[in-house]
From TrEMBL:
Species this protein is from: Thermococcus onnurineus (strain NA1)
PROSITE patterns: PROKAR_LIPOPROTEIN
InterPro entries per the UniProt record, alphabetical: OxRdtase_Mopterin-bd_sf
SUPFAM superfamilies: Oxidoreductase molybdopterin-binding domain
Protein name: Oxidoreductase molybdopterin-binding domain-containing protein
Length: 263
């Protein structure tokens, strides 16, 4: 009997010891992340605002501290009206045109007085998913949602007189400043304003040519110079900014003002 009682006491002691040790071990439960919610960290995201030689860097928190406006968008694809809220870019600088460059180097040029915002919120919530962390919202009276580029990194204010434009049979009318020509080398090159040159084919690709495009007319201070699109793409000359003007040395073109794509 005594041996049986002793065996029970030893068993209980061993069991209690195991329970006690188990309670002292720290356990963690992995956090669950909802689907369709971006897990990317945007805490260090910055937007570079350029105006001539001046470059100002803004964090998202600094932009969120600025006066904001709302824009309504009746989105038929989802059957509801969205309320976008953000900073009108006109509060950041002045110019004839504003160039917006996204993190993946997409470029749009929007006339300065167009109604638009750099949206940081939609329906009262910070932007999430593919829209995060900042998105350009443009009044649809100007154009389509194709102008609503996401993940903006550069906002550039330019004067038309200091740019050459690409227009005509294109989907994306653009104004290239000397600084914007650096877009093909990345955001850092735009900010540092390093090279001021680009291949013509790359420039035309940014403008997105229509299938009807057949001719390229270079509009200059010395007159108009016309080439077939096929001929120009085969030569693919370099556009450079030198001595205060845009040039295409391989074609003998100086003082370039515009590139008109024609049928």
């Amino acid at each position: 009997m005594k041996r049986a009682v002793l065996a029970i006491i030893i068993l209980l002691t061993f069991s209690l010891g195991c329970i006690s040790q188990g309670n002292t071990r720290e356990t963690t439960t992995p956090a669950l992340v909802s689907l369709n919610v971006s897990t990317e960290d945007y805490s260090n995201w910055t937007v570079y605002v350029t105006n001539g030689e001046n470059v100002t860097e803004y964090t998202l928190d600094e932009l969120k501290g600025m006066p904001m406006e709302e824009m309504l968008d009746k989105d038929l694809s989802i059957g509801k009206t969205l309320v976008w809220k953000g900073v009108p870019p006109q509060k950041l600088g002045k110019g004839d045109v504003i160039n917006f460059v996204s993190d993946d180097l997409y470029l749009v040029s929007i006339p300065y007085y167009t109604k638009m915002i750099l949206a940081l919120y939609v329906d009262g919530n910070p932007l999430q998913g593919n829209d995060a962390p900042i998105k350009l919202i443009v009044d649809l009276s100007y154009g389509c949602r194709c102008n609503w580029i996401k993940k903006i990194r550069v906002v550039e204010f330019v004067r038309k007189s200091e740019c050459f434009s690409v227009y005509g049979e294109v989907f994306n009318i653009l104004y290239f400043s000397p600084r914007t020509l650096n877009i093909f080398r990345g955001i850092d090159s735009i900010v540092k304003n390093e090279s001021n040159s680009a291949r013509l084919k790359d420039v035309l690709d940014k403008a997105i040519l229509k299938e009807t495009a057949k001719k390229v007319v270079f509009v200059t201070g010395e007159g108009r110079f016309e080439y077939s699109l096929e001929e120009v793409l085969e030569k693919d000359p370099t556009i450079v900014y030198e001595d205060g003007e845009f040039k295409i040395p391989e074609l003998g073109i100086n003082d370039l003002k515009g590139i008109n794509i024609e049928k």
